Amino acid sequence: MEKLTLIFLQGLGNSILNFPIYYSLIQKYDVEILTYKNGSSDFYRELGAKVTEVASLKDLLVKSYRNKSDIVITLYPNWRRELVAINLADGLRKYHFKIPKLSQYFIGRCLEVDHEIHDVENNLRILRVLGLKASPYRDYLVSKTKSSFTGKYIVLHPTASTMNKYYPLDFWQELVDRLSLKFDRIFILCGHKEEEKNFCGQIVGEKVELKIGLKFNELFSLINGTEFFIGLDSSMMHLAALFDKKIYALWSFADMRRIYPYSSDVSIIAPVEVLETNDFKYPKSELPWLKRMSGGEMLKIIEGKSQPNKRKTDLNNNDVKIYVY
C-alpha cells in the first residue's frame, strides 16, 4: 500500500470539514496526517487516524526529512506548505497541475480553486486525480458513538472562534425559552475559553444543560442523537454536518459559497451584508447587523412559517436553503 501524507495546518473547523476527503483516501492509501497540536489532532486520533503533530512549519520541515511519502497533499496550500509537500514526496513521480519542472508528485488545490463551489467539492478534484471516488462515511462515524442520550433533545452552539461572530444573548435566550416548550432537553455546547463560558452561562432555563469542553467521543454521541443543530459557523456546525443532521447555520461574515455545513438538510440564516461583499476578513469589532435577527423570527424558520429567499444545490444534489435578513 502506498504511503500518503495529508498536511492539515488549519483550524479544527477546516479539518473537520474535509473529513470526507480523508476517509476516501484511507480506502486506498496508508495515510498519515501532519497537523499542529490542536483540536484537529484530537479529532482525527479519536477516529483512529495516524497523526504526527508539529509545533511549527520549521518543525514540519525537520520531520519531513525523516518521513518520506509516495504522495503528499496539502489541502490549503501556500508557497511554504507547497515546498514542504514537495520535500516530503519521495522519488520521481508523475506531474500534476502547473509544476512540470519538479521531479516530485505534488497535488495542490489552490492553483485552480473555484470560489463558487464548496471546499469539499473543490477538494474532490484530488480524488479524481488519484482515480478515487468519494466514499460514504457516515456509518463509520456513527460506529464511533459510544453512548446515547435519552429523550427528545436539540443541540445549540452559540459561540465560535471570535466573540464578534456571536449572535446577541437576548436572541439565544428568547429562542431557548420558546424551544423549551417543544423538547425535553436543550444542550448548549461551550468551549474552555472564559468568554465562551461566561456567555453560555447566561443562557438559562429548566431544560438547559451546559456542556463544557466535551471530548470528541462524547460530542459524537450527543450530536448523533439531536433532533437538529443550531449554531454559528464553527467546527461544531461542521461536525453536525458530518453526521448529516438537520442544521440551522447562523452566519455572520464568512464566505458561505464555500464553507456552509455539508449535509443533506441545511438552512443558512444570513444578513444581507454577507451576500453583498467579497471581503471575508475576520471583523475587528461586533457586527451590528446580527442584532436584526430575533429568537422569534428564528423560530418561524424552524417551524416552516418562513420561506427561504434563495436556494442552491451542491454537487451532491443537496438542497441548501438561504434565509436572508
UniProtKB/TrEMBL annotation:
SUPFAM superfamilies: UDP-Glycosyltransferase/glycogen phosphorylase
One GO CC term, this protein: cytosol
InterPro entries: Glyco_trans_9, LPS_LOS_Heptosyltrfase
Enzyme Commission identifier(s): 2.4.-.-
Enzyme class: transferase
UniProt keyword terms in alphabetical order: Glycosyltransferase, Transferase
Domain of life, source organism: Bacteria
GO terms assigned for molecular function: ADP-heptose-lipopolysaccharide heptosyltransferase activity
Pfam (any one): Glyco_transf_9
Biological process terms in GO annotation: lipopolysaccharide core region biosynthetic process
Name of this protein: Glycosyltransferase family 9 protein
Protein source organism: Peredibacter starrii
